[in-house]
Amino acid sequence: MKKIIAFGILILFSSLLMAQTPSAEEILNKIDENMVFDQAISKSKMIIHGRIGDRTIESKSWSKGNDLAMVEYLSPPREAGTKMLKTADKLWIYTPEPTDRIITISGHLLRQSVMGSDLSYEDITDNSSMIESYNAEILGTETIRDRECWVLELTAKKDDISYYSRKIWVDTERLLPLKEERFAKSGKLLKKTEILEVFKQDGRWYPRHMIFKDMLSRGKGTEYFIESIDFNVDIPEYKFTKAALRR
Amino acid sequence: MLAIKLAYRNLIGAGLRTWLNVFILSFSFLVIIWHRGITNGWDRQARNDTINQEIGGGQYWHENYDPYDPFTLADAHGIIHEKLQEKADYAPVLITQATIYPGGRVQSVLLKGIEPDQKVLTIPTEYLKSDMDEIPVMLGSRMAENNKLKIGDIVTVRWRDANGTFDAADAKVVYIFKTSVPMIDNGQMWVSLQRLQKMMQMDGEATLVVANQEITSAQDLQHWLFQDHSILLKDLDEYRKMGNIEGVIMWFILLLLAWIAIFDTQVLSIFRRQKEIGTDIALGMTRGQVIRIFTIEGAMHGILAAILAAIYGGPLLYLQAVKGMSMPEGTDDMGITITDTIYPYYGIGLVVVTALVVLTTTTIVSFLPTRRISKMNPTDAIRGKIQ
Questions:
Q1: Closest C-alpha to A37, from A240, A180, A232
Q2: Which of A95, B10, B133, B137 has the fewest CB atoms within 10 Å around its CB?
Q3: Looking at the complex, does the CB of residue B104 fall below 8 Å from at least one CB of chain A?
Q4: ipTM score here?
């Protein structure tokens, strides 16, 4: 009789626990609510830990949806004034005086590393929705830096997604992926991302300090800091035109 | 005949002065033939190697393919045309961009897929026949050296498939081949065509199709454009033209030295032999006959130089044609087809043309100073009065 009661309590407790855990799709939706924005202007700093030393690059970005992005490098002085415009699958890079040149490049360069970092142009300008791109399955829970996380396995819904599968550790309270592993179709681990610090702005949690690591290369990773971000902006369309590169 | 005899006697009589001029001229003669021989030899070898190992009789390119723009590669592929399926005549090649990580370093490469049992190109593609778990890859020696890879090494390759999705796998170096053609070596990794088609999700597709050496011209096919040797060997032709211009400048400098020596000798000879010239004219020779003797004398430098060059230069040139000329380290990194050893090629036409050029120009240079003779007063000449 005691065994039956204990079993009943266990079932009841598990049901309550399950009721508290949202579905994988709900989790992805919540992540999108935090991470995906209509428009934003941000200032960021990138520290590239290379084999021969560290390099720091500061930049200001204007983003609209997933297709439009403009990035202007502010420092170091050698890179200051360089601008990058992304529209859909095209990329233009403007280098200021003395070259004063705009280079047009097809979508291939979006996959190349930005100034030797562990991030591609695609990673930097990515603002895509997870729920639209991936099917998800909850694998369980784990603790990352004292934060309770749901572990999710994501598999691409469509053929044209860069990373076929991902594994993410989502903070159960703040709903941000504190750790992420991105895999090739073969299952090989390609990239690892960790969010080390977060902040809350306009009712959403957003990463402050992240570290990216290309797992195939010998580099020591790239740190990425969001110094400020403003989601309540209305960026005019001209900001995403080639003419704006020279302004 | 008298003029030739006189000219020969005078020339030999001049002794060391004549032999110095002849030696300088023979040296120029030899260097010109040697230089042309080296250029011809390099050109023949480069063409043969490029045809045998890279371009065959010609290539069909997919209509979007531009070898000078790697960004076109994403769209430059299509189902191989039904008329290009015969294995004995055609070797399809699929090309895509990828990244390798030798020793953790990031390196962009071109992955080239080719049938392991193709018979069109002479590269050892049979080594790509393997069922191992890793992707069997073959490299040129420059690529292997630049990336510190050797046979048996495993390197991670990352690529994007036809849909743009990342994929990665380990590749094993199964063979490293030595080639003089950088276009099939630098920054390239060769894999089996079927394996690459599967990796890229491009079944039955290729970027270009190499035709065998008997097919040197053909009609364009739907989506496939035929490129003949005039297009595929354009870089080599341009390089050769550039080499020819440099060669002409070098010959001119060398011949100029010889011409100056002969011209100077002629001027001195006419000045010193005024009495002889006056006597010849006084004895009834026309000014034209005297000019002819002096011109033949000068021109004979060229004939003697050709004989001398044949005596000491012939064996030297022959020896080099047999042994070849080793190229210095690093020459093969210049981006143009150059073998480790260049074997000069001296055609009979080269020797005859060079001899004619040297003899004609030497005769002209010999004639120019003799025009003074026509203005000489024979009486003053016999007296030795400076004119």
A1: A232
A2: B133
A3: yes
A4: 0.79
